[in-house]
Amino acid sequence: MQNRQVTINPMASSETSTPKTSHRIEAAGFAAAHALFSRLSLESGTNLAASGARVIGMASPLRKRADRNLALAMPEINAQDRAIILKGMFDHLARNAIEYIHLREIGDTADRIAVQGEAHLRQAKTAGKGAILVSAHLGNWEAVRLACERLDWKPALIYRAFNNPFIDAECRRLMSVIDAPILQKGKRGTLALLRHVKNGGAAMILTDQRFTGAPEIPFFGHPAKTALAAAEIAQKYNAPLIPVRGIRRDQSSMFDVTFDAPLEVTPGEEGAVAAMTEINRLLEQWIRQNPRQYFWLHNRWGKFR
Fold first, then answer.
1. Most-buried pick from 34, 241, 246, 252 (CB within 10 A)?
2. What tens digit of pLDDT does each residue of 279-288 get?
3. Tell me, what's the pLDDT at 140?
4. Residue ranges of the alpha helices (H) in 74-133?
5. CB 154 within 8 A of CB 178
6. Domain ranges of the chain
7. Torsion angles phi and psi, residue 83, rounded to 5
8. How large is the average pLDDT for residues 213-229?
9. Which of helix, strand or coil describes residue 248?
10. Which fold has domain 21-293?
């Protein structure tokens, strides 16, 4: 592989802003919601949040954006069925949010996470060359990290910092229940992630967001700017590139986590593009199987075609 700069951008670019009055107000609301849902059981809290999100989400401007994305990706679905999918999406996202409060309970309850394909993760760990776990904003990606913890190989995670520093600090605390590196997007986070993989660690990257300047790779039949970072890191360290997803069972806080066999990554930029093309194909397949569990709010394709 040629020496090229590896750029990681699993989430859209943004800088953490200096605390403002608006940040303090938002943080107060966040703290109040956290206090309320912390007092409720996992089931009660997720059901309450989901019931509100279905109503508020479908009445919000966010619905229009998500509906346009869904119509672009799956034009064969009529408006009535898209509405059913989007109501399910808002339900699912609310459950995901509340589940952050209960990550330890979910991880420690054996029957909440069923794992398939664990041999692929164990083989990668034994090989000692690290691993890149690729997934999307589909299902519950924290369920994947909990499954990895259960298999004794917790992956580092790189994420985009929240604009509100108070909320960012609290979310980092919640994510840190899983004792693995939580790295902010940027130069320092990128270098830390590379060192982690070089030293034989696993890293999880969500690859389904638009990355300005990246090559356009088909996603649901439309060109989508797709970062090559996951494949490039696999090339750089000869680490396996393992597709993985954590799918919710119905409307419960129970998940099926599946590790697929590592993808072949051949040398050079063409090899990285080929690997990410296959990843986009897999993500599309998984999303079609579980459209209510996908985050349809991303600006994945840029301008609508």
1. 241
2. 999 999 999 9
3. 97
4. 79-99, 103-108, 118-127
5. yes
6. 21-293
7. -60, -40
8. 95
9. strand
10. Glycerol-3-phosphate (1)-acyltransferase (3.40.1130)
pLDDT digit string, tens, across residues 56-65? 999 999 999 9
Q: Which one-letter DSSP state was computed for residue 293?
A: G
Which range (70-79, 152-161, 237-246) has the least confidence?
152-161
The answer to whether 27 and 167 are in contact (CB under 8 A) is yes
Residue written as token pair 């849902």:
37
Where residue 130 falls (left for φ over 0; alpha for ψ -120 to 50; beta otherwise) is: left
Cα–Cα distance list, 296 to 107, 121, 172 (Å): 27, 29, 24
Tokens of 247: 């799918």
Report the SS3 class of residue 139: strand
Closest CA to 163 of 65, 301, 16, 300: 16
Q: CA 286, 289, 295 angle in degrees (round to 5)?
A: 65
SS3 236: helix
What does the angle CA 188 – CA 190 – CA 193 come to, to the nearest 5 degrees? Answer: 110
The span from the CA of 305 to the CA of 302, in Å, is 9
Q: Which pLDDT score, from 0 to 100, does residue 304 have? A: 53
Tokens of 25: 């107000």
pTM of the predicted model, to two decimals? 0.90
174 token code pair: 């919640």
The enclosing H or E element of 163 equals none
Q: How far is residue 146's CA from residue 53's CA, in Å, rounded to a whole number?
A: 25
Would you give the DSSP letter of residue 22?
A: H
pLDDT value of residue 16: 43
